[in-house]
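2024-03-11 09:14:02 INFO receiving multi-entity request
2024-03-11 09:14:02 INFO entity count = two
2024-03-11 09:14:03 INFO echoing inputs for audit
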Amino acid sequence: MTAINFSSRQPSGISGFLNSLMKPVAVAPLVTFRIGFGLLMFASTIRFWLKGWIDAIYIQPKFHFTYWGFEWVRPLSTNGMQLVFLLLALSALCIGLGFLYRLATPIFFLLFSYVELIDVTTYLNHYYFVSLIAFLLIWLPANCNYSLDVRLRLTPRSNRVPAWTVAIIRFQIAVVYVFAGLAKLDPDWLLQAQPMRIWLPSKSHLPVVGPYLHKEWAAYLFSWFGAAYDLLIAVFLLIRKTRPVAYGFVILFHLATALFFPAIGIFPYVMIVSSLIFLSGDTHEKFLSKIFHRTPEPHVLWNKYSTALLYPCLAIYVTFQVLFPLRFLFYPDRLFWTEQGFRFSWRVMLMEKSGIAYFRIHDANTHANTEVNNAEFLTPLQEKMMSTQPDLIVKYAHFLKKEFSKRGMKNPEVYAEVYVTLNGRRSTLFVDSSFNLASVKLSWKPYSWILPFKNQP
Amino acid sequence: MRYLVIVCGLVLCVVLYSCSKSSGGPSPGPSTSEFDKTAMLSSYADELIIPAYQKMQQAITELETAAIAFLDNPGSTSQETVKAAYRNAHLQYERIEAFNFGPAGVALLEVNANFSGGLDYSFTQAGELTGFSIDSSTIENNISTGSYDLAVYSRNNFYSQGFPALNYLLLDPHAIEKFKVNTTGRVKYVKDVLARLKSLIDKVAADWGTYRSTFTGNTETNVGSPIGNLVNQFAYEMDLLKGPRIGWPFGKQSNAIPFPLKSEAYFAGMSAALAVENIKSLKIAYTNNGNGKGIADYLKSLGKAELNDDVLSRFDKLIASLEAIPDPLSDAFTSQSDLIDAAYKDIQQLLTLLKTDVPSALGVQITFMDNDGD
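2024-03-11 09:21:47 INFO inference complete, emitting structure
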């Protein structure tokens, strides 16, 4: 802890930028963020439990679609998974309360990421976002004020932190928005107003706006407004003058998405709560001191970072976040079709894609054919996700080869007839049905066994 | 700060307003949207679903009368009468099978009346209770011990009541002989099975009286909504046709080894007729009997006339190819395998449209589970 000198002059250039990262700022935005995030994660863990999803998603399936490189991740028994969720709920609550924060954040991060890694078919962008935020929180002093840790004297109280600790969360949220916006700069989205043109007419039950939702202009309005919102909101949140109105838009926009698309679950609330961090330190300090009946205190800085280690780590993290979502540029054909570089890239509510996959096992020795009953191995959710995602189709083919070998087939080959419809186009063949999918090895290379996208109406 | 207060206030007003509106049931006044979904659902309820359940009640009552006459005097004449009544009732069941949600879902009508075995089983061995099996050993055991509870939730129990049990007990070639032994127990069992089937159907028909307003008042398309349920049922019925009704007993999963005993209502010898009636009824459900207020018309209103035309022509093609298969289907599996292969391909063609293109165009998710997405 150091007392703070406010009169320091900022040098320019890189060193100026690096200095500005260390400039003391109010910790209050980070504190509000910690409380909001912790309580929201606590509520959403309980919600997940009450919906019976622990059983439906992690216990029931006989087979799990693991992530490439994380094939060793396995679900635990019923009791084990319930314990994981109990610990998740408790650690989220601890984060919210700022109690044993240094212990709670790594536990929450590891357990949450573990649960997400069990099955790709449950992948959601906002789960990835939660994992990243949880990871960042491990390294941030979000418990150094308004926390039980301070109250119990486990952590000394400070109200000033280096600027980067707040900025990194703002950066992460801006990344989500900007990439979500860039993803919408797509011909289907902008020129055809798809998939809004499919989704909106199905919402005609909504009050006031309902009767207009089948109109073409409504679909264009939603598409263009959504793209503009995602692209610009982070900038408007960063500019002091536009910030209050921008945050009003955040609330309006996400409540609207929650109303229109209830199936997106907690995502709107995650964004509404997270975006609070863009509000100024003053706003947060006033808000917190009012709630907790605190009078202003002298500034005390929390700074335990070694810049020698910090700068490279920050550079790596930021570079990864900016570049990884762009990896789709290295792949041929339409991204929405092949989905190479689709995940971990903030492509949210972007397409209406569904498929059906018929698998056939061919015994290379006897030339006998057997059809696969997907429902025997997969839950409806898994089957639905697998049917449109090429890497999952291959993972499933590998599983089928193993399964039918176990059943006594000497040399099983796996062929699939898969039909996929994208953004209202008629379904067409998706996978080369003459390709033995069991022989495909997953890699970073472009998929050669996916048929080219046909841009028919 | 003042901005923030104003904006938050506005948001709050909008949210409160919309919540108060959406929780108050069907919105008042006529909807001005292009396609009137409320009218569609009302028509489904009043002109298709509720009348179909009433006919089902009637058919079961007639079956009961014929069955009692047969039980009083088991002989080939009374068996012919009960066979006709059975046929009539089972065909009528095919006409209600697509409405297996709401009251039928609550009553577990499908598993108790005509258990298909579910879709999540492997169909590779003859002895297993899968598909449209009949659990004759549990049935015989129930009759000889006289202690059974047909309401217990178990696969053995599903396979020992409803249509599977009735066609075994009444129409098995040795059915008449079997009534000579432990007559009282056997007669009682048949009557209990009939009474349970009848009470389930009566319950579903009665429940539609109250469920009707829930059904017509919800024009959403999310998981569990009436439109969502209808569209999901279309896909599910096609899955049943591809699996337990035709594909699996034909040997599609078992290296071309057929399981004739597992064809639907085996002892009635009418599996092909049931499949035909099933798909014809599904077409009627899809078009709402062509009255202009069906899912087909909703699809057209969304600019998908071409897709709808394709769906209808694939329906017709499949109906024709199923009609070409002679009963008993259990024999046709081996004697007419080309015809069955052709029908199987047509099933897959229609299934593809009903499980991908149609739900996707309607904004309906094919899933039987509620889940988050983004």
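2024-03-11 09:21:48 INFO post-check: Residues 36-362 of chain B form a domain with the A middle domain of Talin 1 fold (CATH 1.20.1420.20).
2024-03-11 09:21:48 INFO post-check: Chain B touches chain A through 68 residues (CB under 8 Å).
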